[in-house]
Each structure stands twice: as C-alpha cells, then as structure tokens.
Design a protein that fits this description.
The chain has helices at about 20-35, 60-70, 75, 85-95; strands at about 5-10, 45, 50-55, 55-60. It is of the alpha+beta class.
Length: about 100
C-alpha cells in the first residue's frame, strides 16, 4: 500500500523466481521513483509475520532468525526500525535466555 509518506508491505511471497530480497530492492526503487515524481516517501514499513510448521507447532521465522543471527531478516538487507538499538538489546536478551524453544519430534 502506498500512503502519503510511506509504503506499507503487509507480506512478501515468492513469485516465480522473484524472492524476498528482490522484492525489497524493487520496493526501494519504486520509492525512489515516486519521490522523483513529487511524492515524499520517507520510509518503508514491512510487517514480518512468516511462520513454518514444525511438529504441528507454528514457529515464527523472525524469532528463529533473531536467535541464530542476533538480528532480523530485514536488517540483513539494510532495513532498520526507529527502535533498532533497543531491538538489538532485546534480541541479545532473547539469545541469552536459558529456555527451551523447540521440542524435537
């Protein structure tokens, strides 16, 4: 959805050979072109709620990415929230927790 000053992406999905990183690149190009044509796109908002089913349980991919790398999938491609510094602190706290997250089948 294109709003007055931002683009909102509710979800990304594979479409043939186009995958998430290419979608993000294309959205950035779109924002630049809109700005060249008089729009004032200041940011891109991406909602990341992808899940996979493991052992009949839905597991949030965002959480897996944070636990394995310390940052989100979007951060890998240069997208950062306004609260990025706090998120990194929170992510580190998640990693350091001594809890069992997955039960193996």
């Amino acid at each position: 959805m294109i709003n007055d000053d931002y683009i909102y992406i509710k979800w990304l999905s594979k479409c043939g050979i186009i995958k998430g990183p290419n979608f993000l690149k294309n959205i950035s190009i779109l924002a630049e072109k809109l700005n060249q044509n008089g729009k004032q796109i200041k940011y891109i908002k991406l909602y990341d709620d992808e899940e996979i089913a493991i052992c009949n349980e839905n597991i949030c991919l965002r959480t897996i990415k944070i636990l394995t790398t310390g940052s989100s999938w979007c951060n890998k491609y240069g997208y950062y929230s306004k609260n990025y510094k706090n998120e990194i602190k929170h992510n580190q706290e998640m990693i350091e927790k001594n809890t069992q997250i997955f039960l193996l089948c």
